[in-house]
Amino acid sequence: MRKNQTFVWVLALFAFSLFLLAGSVWAATIAPLSVNDGHTRTSIRRVTLKIHAPKDFRLMKISNDEKFTDRSWEKVVQQKTWFLDYGSGSKKIYIKFRDSRGKESSVSHVNIYLTPPATFKSDFEINDGDETANTRSVELHFKLSSGIEKIQISNNSNFSDAESFTPEENLNWTLTSGTGKKTVFVKFIDVSNKIHTLSHSIDYTEPARYIPEESVIKGQSETLYYLGLDGKMHPFLDLATYHSWYKDFSKIVYVSDAKIQEYSIGSAVCLRAGTWLVKFSHSPRVYAVEPGCRLRPLRSETEAFIFYGDTWQRRIIELSDIQRNFYRVSDITPYEDSEDRDQDGVPTDMEDFYSSSDNRADTDRDGVSDYEEIYAWFSDPLKKDTNSNGVSDSQEVRKGLSPVSSQILTTLPEGSYTLPVGTLFQARGANKSSWYYQYAPDYAGSISESTFKSYNAPTTFISRTPFAFVLPRRSSFSSTDLKIHFTPNMYHGSVLRPL
Questions:
Q1: Sheet of 264-265: strands edge to edge?
Q2: Is 148 contained in some domain?
Q3: Residue 320 covered by a domain
Q4: Taking the complete model, does pTM exceed 0.85, yes or no?
Q5: Which pLDDT belongs to residue 330?
Q6: How far apart are the C-alpha atoms of 490 and 293, rounded to whole Å?
Q7: Does some domain include residue 272?
Q8: Which residues, other chains included, contact 442 with Cβ-Cβ below 8 Å and sequence gap of 6+?
Q9: C-alpha to C-alpha distance for 171 and 154, rounded to whole angstroms
């Protein structure tokens, strides 16, 4: 009996050892990068990457080019949307990682085959096929075949005023002014970079007693309105919002209340991006305003200092709870609540690794968030003074010193901080006339003083950042790009459009 028991125990231990060995081999052979859950073919350039970083590696670079040309380090995430290069055939995606000491991993890659569709079947309608329109703002409804990667829309056949969009079923568009037949031209660009051009027309009738859109209107009451391209009156709810767009009252059009009543009232005008910082009563959270009535939460006082300098608190204004309804708060984490309970951008498994709290964004309450400590500074989220020199991590950054060494800071760690979209900033050490505009999360571009003034850009809100940012930068923007950002705007789905 005892021999049988011993034999059973030996078998059990042997089986358990095999299980552990199999688990170890499986863990060791997990690829650092996979695409579309292992599928080998796709008909569109947009793919989903799954990333498995080696232990202690917190930054990554991803590229379609094995030399990683023009790619910057970014924090490791578990999943990322990616776009393949144009053209059919086998595509390679490359990845490498870097740890807190600057050590880089070897380069890995994954393959997928891009096969464009054989036929083109896309088309569009204006206002669901209506023959007439009484506002310049119209909706384009698209019927899209697979493989369409980009849409360009214009009011001219030469596409001189073209705007580019990611394909969506519906897109808002603005016709040219003046009564008459209006033709909209659309280019459909597929995965092989082939272009298919279509056009459709609609008759537009300008309203009687026409007031130009994009005018500021005032009736007999104190309320100021912005007449949008949608033909609606959009109220300014306070003077702070008005002055974020206009420096004075010289461009106001005065009309009777009866005239205002001829128009529908639209949503309120939101603060201009890159101007005031916002907070609401009963909450200490401070937000940066981004285009389209979006609010980006600031992670900490340290982040606010890095973006706006010592005077960041002077930018804060408090808005009413009613005004809050006109804004949408952006996520600062790509993870679901179950993966990131405090929604600070640090997933639960990473919080567990560092023993930081997944219920508080700043575990040691030193004024530097866990996210910044882990991904930007490589400091200890459990210690207020990582390098034990008697100065807190937050104070060191504000003094221009590294929180983990005695190094003097001039440039921020690559991939660590990204200015809020819409920020007008002057690079550290640059000439006073060298200004930049953060047009999107992943790029900024230089902009001249004359361009600033032509769009009423408030130069008093230029951020003079205490550190240099390592960013991929475009050399210039088109007038269409800037016009959408520099006039009252809102999102139609995922697309930013003039109000």
A1: 252-254, 216-218, 224-227, 232-236, 264-265
A2: yes
A3: yes
A4: no
A5: 93
A6: 6
A7: no
A8: 418, 471, 472
A9: 13
Q: How far apart are CA 225 and CA 303, in angstroms?
A: 35
Cβ-based neighbours of 390, under 8 Å, separated by 6 or more: none
The residue among 12, 22, 491 whose CA lies nearest residue 295 is 491
Q: Can you count the helices (H) and strands (E) in the chain? A: 10, 33
> What is the rounded average pLDDT of the residues 9-15?
48
What confidence tens digit (pLDDT) does each residue in 158-201 have? 998 888 888 889 999 999 988 999 999 999 988 888 899 999 99
- Cα separation, 68 vs 414, in Å, equals 15
Same domain, 51 and 107: yes
> Does the residue 266 lie in any domain?
no
If asked whether residues 127 and 103 sit together in one domain, one would say no
CA atoms of 25 and 30, how far apart (whole Å): 9
Cα(122)–Cα(346) distance, integer angstroms: 41
In this prediction, residue 432 carries a pLDDT of 56
Q: Are 420 and 312 in contact (CB under 8 A)?
A: no
Q: Please give the tally of structural domains in the chain.
A: 5
Tell me: the pLDDT tens digits for 85-137? 888 889 999 999 988 778 899 999 999 999 887 777 899 999 999 999 988 88
| Parent domain of 462 | 423-484
| Gap between the Cα atoms of 57 and 455, Å rounded | 44
Other CB atoms within 10 A of residue 292 CB:
23
